[in-house]
Amino acid sequence: MNEVVSKRNQLLAEKVIKGLASRNMSGYYAASREEALQLALRLIPEGASVTMGGSASANEIGLVQALKNGNYNFIDRDAAADKRAAMLAAYDADVFLSSVNAMTDDGILINIDGNANRVSAIAQGPRKVLFIVGMNKVCGSDPDSAMKRARNTAAPINAQRFGLSTPCTKTGACMDCKSPDTICCQFLITRYSRHKDRIHVILVNDNLGF
Ligand code: SF4
Protein backbone atom coordinates (compact mmCIF):
# COMPACT_ATOMS: atom_id res chain seq x y z
CA MET A 1 0.00 0.00 0.00
CA ASN A 2 1.24 3.47 -0.92
CA GLU A 3 2.94 5.26 1.99
CA VAL A 4 0.70 8.34 2.07
CA VAL A 5 -2.43 6.22 1.72
CA SER A 6 -1.21 4.07 4.61
CA LYS A 7 -0.65 7.17 6.75
CA ARG A 8 -4.16 8.42 6.00
CA ASN A 9 -5.63 4.97 6.70
CA GLN A 10 -3.86 4.70 10.03
CA LEU A 11 -5.10 8.14 11.14
CA LEU A 12 -8.64 7.43 9.95
CA ALA A 13 -8.60 4.03 11.67
CA GLU A 14 -7.78 5.72 14.98
CA LYS A 15 -10.98 7.74 14.63
CA VAL A 16 -13.00 4.65 13.66
CA ILE A 17 -11.63 2.68 16.63
CA LYS A 18 -12.65 5.47 19.03
CA GLY A 19 -16.11 5.49 17.47
CA LEU A 20 -16.41 1.73 17.86
CA ALA A 21 -15.35 1.95 21.52
CA SER A 22 -18.08 4.54 22.13
CA ARG A 23 -20.52 1.93 20.79
CA ASN A 24 -19.25 -0.89 23.04
CA MET A 25 -17.41 -2.54 20.16
CA SER A 26 -13.68 -3.26 19.82
CA GLY A 27 -11.61 -2.02 16.89
CA TYR A 28 -8.09 -2.88 15.75
CA TYR A 29 -5.86 -1.63 12.96
CA ALA A 30 -3.77 -3.97 10.83
CA ALA A 31 -1.10 -2.41 8.63
CA SER A 32 -1.23 -5.35 6.19
CA ARG A 33 -3.25 -8.44 5.26
CA GLU A 34 -0.72 -10.63 7.09
CA GLU A 35 -1.03 -8.53 10.25
CA ALA A 36 -4.82 -8.78 9.96
CA LEU A 37 -4.59 -12.56 9.74
CA GLN A 38 -2.42 -12.78 12.86
CA LEU A 39 -4.74 -10.41 14.74
CA ALA A 40 -7.79 -12.45 13.75
CA LEU A 41 -6.17 -15.69 14.86
CA ARG A 42 -5.37 -14.12 18.24
CA LEU A 43 -9.06 -13.29 18.64
CA ILE A 44 -10.24 -16.82 17.77
CA PRO A 45 -9.29 -19.40 20.43
CA GLU A 46 -8.16 -22.80 19.22
CA GLY A 47 -10.99 -25.32 19.33
CA ALA A 48 -13.62 -22.64 18.71
CA SER A 49 -16.55 -23.31 16.43
CA VAL A 50 -16.38 -20.76 13.64
CA THR A 51 -18.66 -19.99 10.75
CA MET A 52 -19.24 -17.11 8.40
CA GLY A 53 -21.70 -15.27 6.24
CA GLY A 54 -19.79 -15.38 2.97
CA SER A 55 -17.08 -12.77 3.49
CA ALA A 56 -14.70 -12.18 0.58
CA SER A 57 -12.50 -10.12 2.92
CA ALA A 58 -11.93 -13.03 5.35
CA ASN A 59 -10.88 -15.12 2.35
CA GLU A 60 -8.61 -12.41 0.98
CA ILE A 61 -6.50 -12.17 4.15
CA GLY A 62 -6.16 -16.00 4.24
CA LEU A 63 -8.27 -16.41 7.37
CA VAL A 64 -10.71 -18.98 6.02
CA GLN A 65 -7.92 -21.24 4.81
CA ALA A 66 -6.03 -20.87 8.10
CA LEU A 67 -9.13 -21.89 10.04
CA LYS A 68 -9.77 -24.87 7.77
CA ASN A 69 -6.15 -25.99 8.20
CA GLY A 70 -5.98 -25.29 11.93
CA ASN A 71 -7.40 -26.67 15.14
CA TYR A 72 -10.87 -25.20 14.81
CA ASN A 73 -14.37 -26.49 14.23
CA PHE A 74 -14.97 -24.59 11.00
CA ILE A 75 -18.58 -24.95 9.91
CA ASP A 76 -18.42 -24.66 6.13
CA ARG A 77 -21.93 -23.88 4.97
CA ASP A 78 -20.97 -24.11 1.29
CA ALA A 79 -19.62 -27.66 1.71
CA ALA A 80 -22.35 -28.87 4.11
CA ALA A 81 -24.76 -31.53 2.87
CA ASP A 82 -27.49 -30.06 5.06
CA LYS A 83 -27.22 -26.34 4.40
CA ARG A 84 -30.13 -25.45 6.65
CA ALA A 85 -28.53 -27.28 9.60
CA ALA A 86 -25.22 -25.50 8.92
CA MET A 87 -27.02 -22.17 8.74
CA LEU A 88 -28.81 -22.79 12.05
CA ALA A 89 -25.54 -23.92 13.68
CA ALA A 90 -24.18 -20.43 13.04
CA TYR A 91 -26.43 -19.04 15.78
CA ASP A 92 -24.69 -21.21 18.37
CA ALA A 93 -21.14 -20.74 17.04
CA ASP A 94 -18.35 -19.32 19.16
CA VAL A 95 -17.27 -16.98 16.37
CA PHE A 96 -19.05 -15.60 13.31
CA LEU A 97 -16.93 -14.01 10.57
CA SER A 98 -18.20 -11.27 8.34
CA SER A 99 -17.25 -8.05 6.67
CA VAL A 100 -19.44 -4.99 6.34
CA ASN A 101 -20.97 -3.56 3.20
CA ALA A 102 -19.98 -0.16 4.53
CA MET A 103 -19.37 1.64 7.80
CA THR A 104 -19.17 5.20 9.05
CA ASP A 105 -15.92 6.65 10.31
CA ASP A 106 -17.46 6.81 13.78
CA GLY A 107 -18.24 3.11 13.99
CA ILE A 108 -21.74 2.44 12.63
CA LEU A 109 -21.84 -0.80 10.62
CA ILE A 110 -24.14 -1.26 7.61
CA ASN A 111 -25.02 -4.67 6.16
CA ILE A 112 -27.51 -5.69 3.48
CA ASP A 113 -28.63 -9.27 3.00
CA GLY A 114 -30.86 -11.38 0.79
CA ASN A 115 -31.43 -14.51 2.87
CA ALA A 116 -30.77 -12.66 6.15
CA ASN A 117 -28.63 -15.45 7.61
CA ARG A 118 -25.68 -13.05 7.79
CA VAL A 119 -27.47 -10.02 9.24
CA SER A 120 -29.45 -12.13 11.70
CA ALA A 121 -26.27 -13.81 13.02
CA ILE A 122 -24.57 -10.42 13.32
CA ALA A 123 -27.54 -9.15 15.32
CA GLN A 124 -27.73 -12.07 17.76
CA GLY A 125 -26.64 -15.65 18.34
CA PRO A 126 -22.88 -16.23 17.91
CA ARG A 127 -20.84 -15.43 21.02
CA LYS A 128 -18.37 -13.30 19.09
CA VAL A 129 -18.68 -11.54 15.73
CA LEU A 130 -15.41 -10.72 13.99
CA PHE A 131 -15.50 -8.27 11.10
CA ILE A 132 -12.65 -8.02 8.61
CA VAL A 133 -12.94 -4.60 6.97
CA GLY A 134 -10.75 -3.07 4.28
CA MET A 135 -10.35 0.68 4.67
CA ASN A 136 -12.09 1.07 1.29
CA LYS A 137 -15.38 0.44 3.12
CA VAL A 138 -15.02 3.29 5.60
CA CYS A 139 -17.23 6.24 4.64
CA GLY A 140 -17.91 9.60 6.30
CA SER A 141 -19.67 10.13 9.63
CA ASP A 142 -23.09 10.52 8.02
CA PRO A 143 -24.84 7.11 8.06
CA ASP A 144 -26.45 8.03 4.72
CA SER A 145 -23.02 8.04 3.05
CA ALA A 146 -22.38 4.50 4.29
CA MET A 147 -25.84 3.37 3.25
CA LYS A 148 -25.23 4.82 -0.22
CA ARG A 149 -22.00 2.81 -0.52
CA ALA A 150 -23.75 -0.35 0.63
CA ARG A 151 -26.62 0.10 -1.82
CA ASN A 152 -24.84 1.59 -4.85
CA THR A 153 -21.44 -0.09 -4.73
CA ALA A 154 -21.45 -3.25 -2.60
CA ALA A 155 -24.88 -4.61 -3.51
CA PRO A 156 -24.61 -4.34 -7.33
CA ILE A 157 -21.15 -5.96 -7.23
CA ASN A 158 -22.39 -8.77 -4.97
CA ALA A 159 -25.37 -9.32 -7.28
CA GLN A 160 -22.90 -9.57 -10.16
CA ARG A 161 -20.72 -11.97 -8.13
CA PHE A 162 -23.66 -14.32 -7.59
CA GLY A 163 -24.80 -14.07 -11.22
CA LEU A 164 -28.28 -12.85 -10.29
CA SER A 165 -30.99 -11.67 -12.59
CA THR A 166 -31.45 -8.15 -11.26
CA PRO A 167 -31.46 -4.74 -12.94
CA CYS A 168 -28.09 -3.84 -11.38
CA THR A 169 -26.33 -6.76 -13.04
CA LYS A 170 -27.35 -5.25 -16.40
CA THR A 171 -26.77 -1.56 -15.66
CA GLY A 172 -24.10 -1.60 -12.92
CA ALA A 173 -26.25 0.68 -10.79
CA CYS A 174 -28.88 0.02 -8.14
CA MET A 175 -32.37 0.45 -9.57
CA ASP A 176 -34.08 -0.13 -6.19
CA CYS A 177 -35.62 -3.28 -7.62
CA LYS A 178 -38.18 -5.70 -6.22
CA SER A 179 -36.92 -8.48 -8.42
CA PRO A 180 -37.30 -12.04 -7.06
CA ASP A 181 -33.50 -12.32 -7.20
CA THR A 182 -32.82 -9.16 -5.21
CA ILE A 183 -30.20 -9.42 -2.48
CA CYS A 184 -31.39 -6.20 -0.89
CA CYS A 185 -34.08 -7.65 1.38
CA GLN A 186 -32.88 -6.95 4.90
CA PHE A 187 -30.86 -3.94 6.08
CA LEU A 188 -28.99 -4.06 9.37
CA ILE A 189 -27.60 -0.92 11.00
CA THR A 190 -25.41 -1.78 13.98
CA ARG A 191 -25.04 1.40 16.02
CA TYR A 192 -24.32 -0.12 19.45
CA SER A 193 -23.56 -3.52 20.94
CA ARG A 194 -25.42 -4.31 24.13
CA HIS A 195 -22.90 -7.10 24.84
CA LYS A 196 -19.32 -6.06 25.59
CA ASP A 197 -16.58 -8.11 23.86
CA ARG A 198 -19.04 -9.52 21.32
CA ILE A 199 -18.27 -7.36 18.28
CA HIS A 200 -14.69 -6.94 17.07
CA VAL A 201 -13.68 -5.06 13.92
CA ILE A 202 -10.26 -5.45 12.29
CA LEU A 203 -9.59 -2.51 9.97
CA VAL A 204 -7.13 -3.50 7.29
CA ASN A 205 -4.83 -1.10 5.46
CA ASP A 206 -5.90 -2.45 2.08
CA ASN A 207 -8.83 -2.68 -0.30
CA LEU A 208 -10.77 -5.81 0.57
CA GLY A 209 -14.06 -7.22 -0.67
CA PHE A 210 -16.56 -5.07 -2.50
S1 SF4 B 1 -32.10 -3.34 -4.96
FE1 SF4 B 1 -32.02 -4.63 -6.80
S2 SF4 B 1 -31.01 -3.34 -8.33
FE2 SF4 B 1 -30.52 -2.47 -6.31
S3 SF4 B 1 -28.55 -3.39 -5.77
FE3 SF4 B 1 -30.21 -4.60 -4.82
S4 SF4 B 1 -30.53 -6.27 -6.29
FE4 SF4 B 1 -29.44 -4.65 -7.39
Structure characterization notes:
Helices cover 39% and strands 19% of the residues. It is of the alpha/beta class and 210 residues long. It has a single domain, classed as Rossmann fold. The radius of gyration is 16 Å and the shape is globular. It binds iron/sulfur cluster. Iron/sulfur cluster binds next to helix 7 and helix 8. The site of iron/sulfur cluster has 14 residues, from helix 7 and helix 8.
Labels describing this entry:
210 residues, alpha/beta, Rossmann fold, 6-stranded parallel beta sheet, 3-stranded antiparallel beta sheet, 39% helix, globular, binds iron/sulfur cluster
> What is Rg?
16 Å
- Categorize the overall geometry: globular
Instruction: Please state the oligomeric state of the protein chains shown.
Output: single chain
One letter per element, helices H and strands E, the order comes to: HEHEHHEHEEEHEHHEE
Mind summarizing the main beta sheet?
Answer: 6 strands, parallel
**N-C termini distance:** 18 Å
Strand content: 15-25%
Mean pLDDT: 96
- Poorly predicted regions are none
Helix content: 25-40%
Q: What name does the CATH topology carry?
A: Rossmann fold
Identify the bound ligands: iron/sulfur cluster
| Strand neighbour order, sheet with most strands | 1-9-7-4-2-3
Total of domains = 1
The level 1 CATH classification is Alpha Beta
The name of the CATH superfamily reads NagB/RpiA/CoA transferase-like
Number of helical regions = 8
The class by helix and strand makeup works out as alpha/beta
Give the CATH architecture.
3-Layer(aba) Sandwich
